[in-house]
Design a protein that fits this description.
Blueprint (H helix, E strand, L loop, with lengths): L9 E6 L6 E4 L12 H8 L11 E4 L6 E3 L14 E7 L8 E6 L7 E3 L4 E5 L4 E3 L2 E3 L7 E7 L3 E6 L2 E2 L7 E4 L2 E4 L8 E8 L7 E11 L6 E3 L4 E2 L4 E6 L8 E6 L2 E2 L9 E4 L4 E4 L8 E9 L2 E5 L3 E3 L1 E2 L3 H30 L36
Parallel strand pairs: 8-17, 19-28
Antiparallel strand pairs: 1-4, 2-3, 2-5, 5-6, 7-10, 9-15, 11-12, 11-16, 12-13, 14-15, 16-17, 18-20, 20-24, 21-22, 21-25, 23-24, 25-26, 25-27
Length: 379
């Protein structure tokens, strides 16, 4: 393309702060009038053409700091296709030579979509504003769609209307989507799509991530009771509703238990909410409760439950002792037998050779003669 210096008055979107400068027209193309000789150009300015080495036309231009509108003409044959190059050469400047390159491409004039806040965090039951801004080249009435991405793609706004799940609690302002009274189910990635059929690139999109914060709920606490002295024990606490996930703290008789106490008979996992005892004693007996907390709201606690530590009953003790003694005796007996057999002190009894019992021979098979009836005598 070439830049006509005599018609350059305003540049849209760019300011050139210079005084008493000479605006050298960019490449004027073959056949231009009064081209500057490359030797003269090099002598006067010391600059070279970024496109070729001839066909220049410089014209003086005095201007104030203002907006200049560039008038562009067809691209010369040796320029790259599908790209527009504007070259401003300062042929002569009293203080310092200036070279300004403005590169424009068709994508700059196509539809563009962006969001001023791609990450949105709001509390539950409040409004969430998902911003979406767009600019088009020609199409003044583009198609706007909002979709939610998950396991599949769910339409939120389509064909100039909301879908049934959002119709009663959403609104559109331009391309910006507002969802009222959001819940945890509304968390996810939302995509704003703008389709301008008349533009070079007719589709643009921007993604906004919505994270709905949920304050702690009353956790569920599991405190088994009663527990025998000396046995291991594990207490559980869980809040499955809070976002971000809650951290947990255990209390005994309304006194907080240290999570990492040295030489402690218990161990606490704040992220999982477990309280483990390696071996409980009577000193561990008391009222236990758990508290869940996160940065979305006030902490919540479950109702305190009593942990009762009891001794083994006498009959149970006797039963366990008897069973242990019996097992011990059986093991000792087996060991003694094995040792005795290994040393050979237990002689093997010889088996008496007894004659095999008499088995009478089977009876001889009788040859039965076939009886043939004879003729009877008639008297």
């Amino acid at each position: 393309m070439r830049l006509c210096a005599t018609s350059c008055q305003h540049v849209r979107g760019a300011q050139l702060h210079a005084h008493n400068a000479l605006l050298c027209a960019a490449h004027s193309g073959p056949g231009a009038r009064n081209p500057i000789c490359p030797s003269r150009r090099a002598k006067d300015t010391g600059l070279s053409c970024p496109l070729c080495t001839s066909h220049y036309n410089c014209a003086p231009l005095n201007f104030n700091p203002a907006l200049l509108t560039l008038t562009t003409l067809p691209t010369p044959p040796h320029a790259a296709p599908l790209s527009w190059t504007l070259t401003l050469l300062c042929c002569r400047m009293r203080t310092l030579p200036l070279l300004v390159m403005l590169l424009l491409c068709p994508a700059c004039l196509s539809v563009s979509v962006s969001s001023t806040k791609p990450q949105v965090e709001v509390h539950e039951h409040t409004d969430a504003v998902l911003s979406c801004e767009f600019r088009t080249e020609k199409d003044q009435n583009p198609r706007i769609e909002w979709k939610k991405k998950g396991k599949g793609v769910t339409f939120v706004y389509f064909n100039n209307r909301f879908t049934s799940a959002y119709a009663s609690r959403s609104k559109m302002e331009g391309a910006t989507l507002t969802i009222h009274s959001v819940t945890q189910k509304d968390s996810g990635d939302y995509r704003c799509e703008v389709t301008a059929s008349e533009d070079h690139v007719n589709l643009g999109e921007a993604t906004v991530t919505l994270n709905v914060l949920v304050p702690p709920h009353i956790p569920s606490c599991e405190v088994p009771s009663p527990v025998f002295v000396g046995s291991s024990l594990e207490l559980h606490c869980k809040d499955q509703m809070s976002v971000p996930p809650a951290t947990y703290r255990w209390y005994k008789d309304n006194k907080g238990l240290a999570a990492a106490a040295q030489d402690s008979p218990y161990n606490i996992d704040p992220s999982k909410g477990t309280l483990r005892f390696r071996s409980v004693s009577k000193l561990d007996e008391g009222m236990y409760r758990c508290e869940s907390s996160n940065n979305a709201g006030a902490p919540k606690s479950c109702v305190a439950q009593k942990l009762q530590i009891v001794d083994y009953p006498l009959n149970l003790t006797i039963l366990i002792a008897g069973a242990a003694a019996l097992v011990t005796l059986l093991l000792l007996g087996c060991i003694c037998v094995c040792v005795c057999r290994h040393r050979g002190c237990c002689g093997k009894t010889k088996k008496s050779k007894c004659p095999s019992p008499y088995a009478p021979p089977p009876p001889a098979a009788r040859h039965l003669k076939t009886y043939k009836p004879t003729k009877s005598f008639m008297i």
